[in-house]
Every structure is written in structure tokens, then in C-alpha cells.
Amino acid sequence: MTAPGTFIRVVDLETTGSRPPAHAVCEIGWQDVVLGDDGIWQIGGADGAHLVNPGRLIPPVTQAVHHIIDEDVADAPYWPDIAPTVLRSDAVALAAHRASFEQRYCTPALSGNASWICTWKCALRLWPGSPSFSNQVLRYWRKPEGLDRDRGLPVHRAFPDAYVTAHHLRDMLRTTPVETLLEWSALPGLLPRVPAGPLRGTAWTLVDAEALTRFANDRDEDVRYSAQFEQRRRTGEPEAAMAASPDQSELF
Q: What does pTM read for this prediction?
């Protein structure tokens, strides 16, 4: 058994759709990342997956993504029964790629008020040169050491996706303290480039002031935060001030 406070549990969910309560979980997978006696984080500890009865039919368009069908989950446990057995542990934190999605279903009541690390938000800061920041693009762009290709397949199934994410998290932890990853995860995503529109792919440092002002009032939280971050950088604000969450009143 892994000692308390020496591991982070990476989780991944497959669901019937994107938002509860209209949609529900049909699979959960997990892979622990463990702090070794040598002080180095590594893949290890507990791992696994459980099918979950979502209590409703799985739409065909969703079945086509993860290939979990109604017959697969008919005799599986319901989410409130299985979730705490995975989410509640002595882990330092839970982690997921784009953790805001998992957090819609892994509520504080089910997770025991666990802290969360979002590997997507952390990847934006640690690996800004990646061509994209999806779990799978990072997998093939970075080629994490020790990642077993077959164990990480098929994609869009809970355990393989958690397993791949765990390798990203392991590498993050080898360069960045847990506290910093948690801090970044609590903020909007700091996008390294403009994500859409005529300036798509342009680094924020190359965006002119007029366009930057428009982006700083964008409806998307991550775009707004990233533009405001660049505005503050240009005015020479201290790094601590730039890291603060943007003023939501600036939306309109």
C-alpha cells in the first residue's frame, strides 16, 4: 500500500454526454503517480477501471466515441456507489487532463473535497511549444519515457487515457512542485497563442495593443485571461499580480 501523502491519483471519465444532470458517467479509470523513496515521481501504485451504470441510455453518437454500449453497463454499479471508492483516498490530489470536465461529475461530496491538478492547464505553461495540448497530441509530441503504447490504447477509454495523462503528470512533477501545479490549475488556462480567428496561432507577444484589448474582453475565460496576462506583462506588473485571476467585470 502506498503511504499517505506520497501519490496523486489521475482519473479519467467516459460519459453519456458533456454535462450533468442530463448526462452521467459510464466508466472511470485511474492511474497513480507515486513519489519514490529517492524523491522522484514515477508511475506506480493503484490503477484500474470500472464500468458505471449511468441510469440512462447511452446516445449512439457517444457510443461511437468510446464504444461503451448499454449492454456493457447494465449490471455495473451506479456512480454514487462506485465514485467514492476511487476518488476518496490518501492522495495529495486528484488530477485529470482538462480537469474541469471531470469535476462536473466528481463533486466535492464524492471526492471528499479533494484538490485537483489540471494537466492541460499545466502543459500550457510548461510545454508552450506543443502544436496542440490534447492528451494524445502531447503523447506523440513529447513521447514520454516508459509509456507502453498498447497499454495506452484504445483512446477514449477511461484507463488508457488516465494512463497517458499520468505520464504527463509524472514529467511535470519532476520539474515543478505540486503546489505550483495546484496554483496554475486553479487559474484560467494561460494560452501561449491566439486559439482562433484571423490571428490564430499568433503568440500573444506579437498581438498589437488594439487586438489585445478586444481579446481581453472575450467571452472565453482562457482567452480573456491570457490577453490580460500579456497586457499586464507589457506594463511591467509583478509576476504575482499577473498570476492573479482576471477581473470578471472586464467581460463586458
A: 0.92
Strands 7-15 and 94-96: parallel
Residue 67 CA, chain-centre distance (Å), reads 22
CA atoms within 13 A on the CB side of 236: 0
CA 223/CA 181 separation, integer angstroms? 20
Q: In angstroms, what CA-CA distances link 203 with 172, 192, 199, 200, 240?
A: 23, 6, 9, 9, 22
In sequence order, which residues have a C-beta less than 8 Å from that of residue 64 and are 6 or more positions away?
A: none
pLDDT single digits (tens) 56-72: 999 999 999 999 999 99
SS3 194: coil
DSSP string, 81-94: HHHHHHH-SS-S-E
- Phi and psi at 54, nearest 5°, equal -80, -5
Please, which residues have CB within 8 angstroms of residue 145's CB and are 6 or more apart in sequence? 167
Distances (CA, A) of 15 to 46, 104, 145: 22, 11, 30
Q: What is the pLDDT of residues 186-204, one digit of tens each?
A: 999 999 999 999 999 999 9
Contact by Cβ (8 Å): 207, 194: yes
Spell out the domains of the chain, with CATH numbers in brackets.
7-185 (3.30.420.10), 204-251 (no CATH)
Average pLDDT along the chain: 94
What is the DSSP secondary structure assignment for residue 213, as one 8-state letter?
A: H
Name 41's Cβ contacts closer than 8 Å, sequence gap at least 6. Answer: 33, 34, 35, 169, 170, 173, 174
pLDDT tens per residue, range 21-49: 999 999 999 999 999 999 999 999 999 99
